[in-house]
Write a structure and sequence with these properties.
Blueprint: H1 4-40, H2 50-63, E1 69-72, H3 79-88, E2 97-101, H4 107-115, E3 116-117, E4 129-130, H5 132-135, E5 140-144, H6 151-163, E6 165-167, E7 174-176, E8 180-185, H7 189-194, H8 200-206, E9 209-212, H9 221-238, H10 247-255, H11 261-275, H12 283-286, H13 296-322, H14 327-334, H15 338-347
Parallel strand pairs: 1-8, 1-9, 2-5, 5-8
Antiparallel strand pairs: 3-4, 6-7
Helix pairs in contact: 2-3, 6-8, 9-11, 13-14, 14-15
Length: 355
């Protein structure tokens, strides 16, 4: 029989193996949690639009470099999501992605937020603090609303781009960082440069790769894709179930100009999900009112509406004739509800040539 010493040694070996296994399992769990946290901070990117797919190809090529990217476009088009794609498609994807809204904080706080401060630098500075640039070291920093950055801070940003160096507020010690800068704005920076509201040298350094994100009204292929995505998410939050959007709701969404872009569409679908009561989200649930145009645009709008109705009439008539005027089969072929087809036949005054 093994001695007590041998038994103790064997038990110790088992404990070592068990602890090592536990540590390995714990490390694996930490990696999983880190990946979950990393993935949770990024948005799901939804698109079917050819123009957006082309932009993503450009971003994919740009991401392999460390050059600055300037994202341009109207408010609400999703510039932050494109900034995320620059980061996620780059070699920095496992490093921090830090977001800063340059318009959200007053000038005094913004400098500390960007570059950090040392204890005693100002009232309430009770401890040293890292700024966003230092937090983003090795990764990417996204400067949203860069057009609202105060002139006094623009020189400091320019130095970070050129030299990767800065000083914290209240300190004369230089901090060096390795950061990729992605900036975004809905303003005309060239116009701001002419008005001396934005530094020309900073504009040129940021404008290495300008990427214009088109508004939602110029990429209609994305409207229904995004609406379906938002609906699925909000159904979970509201604990309600819908089979999708009615045909009327789809037509309303496709004909609307979406001045607030993707952000407005998201809010619209959320509101419809909250108040909707039927099997489908109806047009009345969307609360969208068409924008009235004046002058020459009124004639254009009427002509466009007439053209659409002419197309609808011819298309529906053709499918009706192919299905021998069987409205059930015609509705199935058109992928719409039979009741909606009947209403269209009446509204468009569609009749059989044989009648």
């Amino acid at each position: 029989m093994p001695s007590e010493i041998e038994v103790n040694k064997f038990q110790t070996l088992i404990d070592i193996i068990f602890n090592a296994k536990s540590i390995e399992e714990a490390q694996n769990e930490v990696r999983v949690l880190q990946n979950q946290i990393q993935n949770d901070q990024f948005h799901t990117f939804i698109t079917k639009s050819p123009v957006i797919l082309e932009i993503l190809e450009i971003i994919d090529r740009a991401a392999k470099t460390d050059s600055s990217v300037l994202l341009l476009g109207e408010s609400g088009v999703g510039k932050e999501l494109f900034a995320e794609q620059v980061h996620l498609r780059s070699a920095r994807k496992t490093s921090p992605f830090v977001r800063v809204n340059c318009a959200a904080l007053p000038e005094g706080l913004l400098e500390s937020e960007l570059f950090g401060h040392v204890k005693g630098a100002f009232t309430n500075a009770i401890a040293n603090r890292k700024g966003r640039f230092e937090m983003a070291d090795g990764g990417t920093i996204f400067l949203d609303e860069i057009g609202d950055l105060p002139l006094s801070l623009q020189a400091k940003i320019l130095r970070v781009i050129q030299e990767r160096k800065f000083e914290k507020v209240g300190s004369d010690i230089t901090v060096t960082v390795n950061v990729r800068i992605v900036a975004a704005t809905n303003k005309d920076l060239e116009e701001q440069v002419q008005k001396n509201e934005f530094r020309q040298d900073l504009f040129y350094r940021l404008n290495v790769l300008p990427v214009y994100i088109p508004p939602l009204r110029q990429r209609p292929q994305d409207i229904l894709e995004l609406a379906d995505f938002f609906l699925k998410n909000f159904m979970q939050g509201t604990k309600k179930q819908f089979d999708g959007f009615s045909q009327e709701a789809i037509e309303v969404m496709l004909s609307y100009t979406w001045p607030g872009n993707v952000r407005e569409l998201q809010n619209c679908v959320e509101r419809a999900c909250v108040i909707g009561k039927g099997k489908y989200i109806g047009s009345q649930d969307l609360f969208l009112k068409p924008h009235s145009n004046e002058g020459e645009n009124d004639g254009l709008e009427r002509n466009l509406k007439t053209a659409i109705n002419v197309f609808k009439t011819g298309f529906i008539l053709k499918v009706l004739e192919e299905n021998h005027w069987n409205q059930t089969e015609t509705a199935r072929a058109l992928a719409i509800q039979r009741t909606y087809l009947s209403r269209l036949i009446k509204e468009l005054n569609i009749t059989s040539k044989e009648l």
